[in-house]
Write a structure and sequence with these properties.
Number of strands: 5
Structural class: alpha/beta
Oligomer: single chain
Order of helices and strands: EHEHHEHHEHHEH
Low-confidence stretches: none
Length: 208
């Protein structure tokens, strides 16, 4: 039952909460499942993530960001995602290539086709069966995170986060069969049920 599911969204959307909830639900049903995340998920990825998100007094260019995220991603695909899919497991990833398209292309302004080409090289063309977008306004998402220490991306101005959200919505419209867009302002349990309905359909299709 090889299924690849990714969770996407702007800051404070609750995607990590929902990715973990889905992981627990599948585990309780004894369905082989792996939960991973970007950037990170491997020893190399963790080092890159720490530097990208928390580096102090370091000016990282948009192109450098793009390449570093994809270096981490290439390792994750090789080391975690593809091997587990080949074993017939469900793989859940908290962020994937669409994050880079939204943040580095729509957010930072890098050429869209270049970003997609580099993403494709890093993923070796591996695309999710389902991408869940937890959609929330930039203002409300950031307000949820104000009490926590903010990383480099969370500290960006509101216009940046609005561009990221717009980018995600454009990506979802361009491939509606892969994307499930969920209103992230709803109660957590309701969001989890909406996601589960779609995942259940995938599971039954794979089982046929």
């Amino acid at each position: 039952m090889s299924i690849f599911i990714t969770f996407e969204g702007g800051e404070g959307c609750g995607k990590s909460v929902q990715a973990k909830a889905l992981y627990r639900r599948l585990s309780e049903l004894d369905i082989p499942v792996v939960l991973t995340h970007e950037p990170g998920g491997t020893p190399l990825g963790k080092k890159i993530a720490r530097w990208l998100k928390w580096a102090q007094d370091t000016d990282v260019s948009p192109l450098a960001e793009l390449l570093l995220f994809n270096r981490s991603r290439a390792q994750l695909v090789d080391e975690v995602i593809r091997p587990n899919l080949e074993k017939g497991k469900v793989v859940i990833c908290d962020r994937y290539a669409d994050s880079t398209t939204a943040y580095q292309s729509y957010g930072r302004g890098l050429d869209l086709e270049m970003v997609k080409a580099i993403n494709d090289a890093a993923t070796q063309g591996l695309k999710p069966n389902l991408t869940v977008l937890l959609d929330i306004s930039a203002e409300e998402g950031l307000a949820r995170k104000k009490t926590k220490r903010q990383d480099r991306f969370e500290r960006e101005n509101i216009a940046f986060h609005q561009r990221v959200r717009e980018g995600y919505l454009k990506l979802a419209v361009s491939d509606p069969e892969r994307w499930l867009v969920v209103d992230a302002t709803q109660p957590k349990r309701k969001i989890a049920e909406i996601i589960w309905q779609r995942v259940s359909q995938l599971l039954s299709t794979e089982a046929d």
